[in-house]
Amino acid sequence: MEAPSPVPGVTRNVFLLGVVSFVADIASEMAYPLIPVFLTSTLGAPVAAMGAIEGVAEGTASSLKVASGWLSDRVGRRKGLVTAGYALSALGKALLALAFAWPQVFVARFVDRFGKGVRTSPRDALIADGTPLSLLGRAFGFHRALDTAGAVVGPLIALLLVGGLSLGIRTVLLLALVPGAAAVALLLVLVRDIPVKGAVRAEAGDPPSRAPGAYWAFLAIVLVFAIGNSSDTFLILRAKDVGLSVSLVVVAYVAFNVSYTLLSMPAGVISDRMDRRLLYTLGLVIFGLVYLGFAWLPSTAWVWPLFVVYGCYMALTEGTGRALVAEAAPSGQRGTFLGLYHTSIGLAAVLASVMAGLLWQMVTPAAPFAVGAGMAFAAAALMLLLVSMGPRLGATGAPLSPE
Questions:
Q1: Alpha-carbon distance 105 to 100, whole Å?
Q2: Which spans in 98-241 are helix H?
Q3: Do 140 and 268 form a contact (C-beta atoms < 8 A)?
Q4: Which of the given ranges, 3-7, 14-18, 35-39, has the highest pLDDT on average?
Q5: What 3-state class would DSSP assign to 21?
Q6: CB atoms closer than 10 angstroms to residue 6
Q7: Model confidence at 198: pLDDT above 50
Q8: What dotted CATH number matches 12-192+210-388?
Q9: 243 φ/ψ sector (left φ>0, alpha ψ -120 to 50, else beta)
Q10: How many CB atoms are located within 10 Å of the residue 246 CB?
Q11: Longest Cα pair distance anywhere in the chain, in angstroms?
């Protein structure tokens, strides 16, 4: 029998996966806010190159998510892929710290995001496998909260090292390897694999055709939104563009992650008690308003509230989106369905980030945010239309109770 979890309604395995993500995200977020400055200032890369690097990096991660999710369904085990993914991301951070030209950063980000692509869908499926349907929002919300708490601690450590101890960016990138390696060790020692039952496993290689039409409609709407949702590095670069120092940019990014962390689990709990699609729609509207703010942005004073409200959008959509997919998927195909969801978003992010870099450089820095706002509002309208067409559906096609 599994030992009890410190958090009511969250299994011990999900709790431990949250701890692993917390430590791993400290490593990632020590580096992430510094990458735009490292690329454009230290290595002299143009903004369009940054957009291409981030777009391809995220696209690589997402294109692998459906394959890794399908593979975890097929073999009936998920932990091995999750561990390999975290290890590859640690290697990518080492390559980033050793880069002396921006094309090398491209390779480093590719390896880092390759690892993310390998681990994400099996990890999310592992969370869903050990959680009752009625508590999926709570489980994913808790995991998002701990994952994002690492994104609060990581930039603060980077800020201390850069601003307080006057260490160089390259040195901070090297130090980020420590929590990255610790996350792999914790995963190996603490997290329990949950085998997929043989009867379900035999069907895991089948195409994901048993999902209700509402799943495919939701996926199509998410793609509309994702086309305008470029990498968050553009938010960081925009804050620097209007006059924030590197240190203050990191603080603003921390404020975003604090908001995201504090609201993720409450949002997940609420999503277990209502139609999740309505909560997701609210998140899209908030995103659109935030991006309009970044397009307008008359002074640095507006950066702070915009980053905080951006955290609200993330809390309302990240865990909720995963829960929507997990409750629609047959238990033996959760890796595949979650992978398809993540892959679709990520491939659209390639287009979104490349387009954002070109719009920034060739039109105006406000242009990528205006486009993103428009796509978010369009997706929100389509979500409301989907809700009006009928009740949310589970994998069997039967209406799901909000209980």
A1: 8
A2: 102-129, 136-159, 169-175, 177-190, 198-201, 213-226, 233-241
A3: yes
A4: 14-18
A5: helix
A6: 7
A7: no
A8: 1.20.1250.20
A9: left
A10: 18
A11: 60
CA gyration radius, the chain = 20
Full DSSP string of 236-291? HHHHHHTT--HHHHHHHHHHHHHHHHHHHHHHHHHHTTS-HHHHHHHHHHHHHHHH
User: Nearest Cα to 96, choosing from 56, 54, 154, 38?
Assistant: 38
pLDDT digits (tens, 9 = 90+) for 86-130: 999 989 888 888 888 777 888 888 888 899 999 999 999 999 998
Cα torsion angle, 161, 165, 169, 172, sign:
negative
DSSP assignment string, 55-98: HHHHHHHHHHHHHHHHHHHHHS--HHHHHHHHHHHHHHHHHHHT
pLDDT band at 209 (very low <50, low <70, confident <90, very high): low
In this predicted structure, the answer to whether residue 394 has a pLDDT above a threshold of 70 is no
Count, residues in the chain: 403
CA nearest neighbour of 275 among 112, 142, 392: 392
For residue range 295-315, what is the model confidence (pLDDT) as tens digits?
988 888 889 999 999 999 999
- Alpha carbon distance 251, 12 (integer Å): 32
Both tokens assigned to 382: 């389509």
